[in-house]
Amino acid sequence: xxxxxxxxxxxxxxxxxxxxxxxxxxxxxxxxxxxxxxxxxxxxxxxxxxxxxxxxxxxxxxxxxxxxxxxxxxxxxxxxxxxxxxxxxxxxxxxxxxxxxxxxxxxxxxxxxxxxxxxxxxxxxxxxxxxxxxxxxxxxxxxxxxxxxxxxxxxxxxxxxxxxxxxxxxxxxxxxxxxxxxxxxxxxxxxxxxxxxxxxxxxxxxxxxxxxxxxxxxxxxxxxxxxxxxxxxxxxxxxxxxxxxxxxxxxxxxxxxxxxxxxxxxxxxxxxxxxxxxxxxxxxxxxxxxxxxxxxxxxxxxxxxxxxxxxxxxxxxxxxxxxxxxxxxxxxxxxxxxxxxxxxxxxxxxxxxxxxxxxxxxxxxxxxxxxxxxxxxxxxxxxxxxxxxxxxxxxxxxxxxxxxxxxxx
Length: 409
Fold this sequence. Notes:
Elements: E1 2-6, H1 15-21, E2 28-33, E3 43-47, H2 62-83, E4 90-93, H3 103-106, E5 111-115, H4 137-146, H5 149-157, E6 160-163, H6 166-170, H7 174-177, E7 180-182, E8 214-221, H8 228-241, E9 246-252, H9 267-274, E10 284-288, H10 292-301, E11 304-307, H11 316-323, E12 328-331, H12 334-337, E13 346-348, H13 353-365, H14 371-384, H15 387-403
Parallel strand pairs: 1-2, 1-4, 2-3, 4-5, 5-6, 6-7, 8-9, 8-11, 9-10, 11-12, 12-13
Helix pairs in contact: 1-15, 8-9, 8-13
């Protein structure tokens, strides 16, 4: 079987399945990705350049125009794949940037599976969820609906689709949900495992262990969609109630989703200015984007880990924190409620700052009382989200049923 992956940041969500199939004798693999794509053993990688900047089109069509330009680059890369004699039987593609647009025309006989990460909607999702942010207005809602154009085209032409969680599947139009199978890409629970002897060594800081009182928070970027503003505004109450606690914050200063603040270079800068004099900044450490080994040790030594999110795509970091046996204080929002049930973590209201702070304080104050939640957190991941024993085998079997060809992984 020939499998083609298409993702601008390959391997991304396809990492675990690609690694597993690299050991399959009856599978050959190729991938198409942008300049940021990384190689995987056993996968021939075809990179394409990011589309050049261009004169913006109408605001309603601006995103789709950019996706079409990216699709053109994918077309050239896919043509090189075909010219090299690789004819895919199955294509796994993330359509969020328009990369799926040329694939059906180039490979009409291939089974195409699209990865359904999120469908933009005016109700029940990230838009309109945060009372602090202004409403979009009519023009904004039209542009929001237009952001789904390439996704809808991909769903219309694909043979099947994948979503990582049931809630993410539910964001898509009902007319297409019958095509969508729920299979998470999975977590490496061998790597993200508990280690009571873990030591986190940071420049200019004493070694940190599980004996220290540590509150942790992580996101790709420190921004409202992941509740960074709520977390920061809860800290004055938390630090006052827990005078020995220190806070470790992982994440970049840029914006991955949404918009930057209007009058500050970053949300971090805005929140630090807002809270100046209310928190002891010597107890709040911003670590930027940590190497993976240090990030793991941070989770392992954490007393309580906070994960907040709008109704949006679920982050790997929640599952990683639970996999190490962490006590997670999660936002009481639909994506998180699918994972945390109260027995394996704690749910808290995102915008009720006194309640959020109180929940965090309780989590920091009672580590012994939360041992059961930590054990059940890891068990939840082992039983439902382990890449090696649950998610990848399920996906491999599903692919075999879709293509009629068993994959010998």
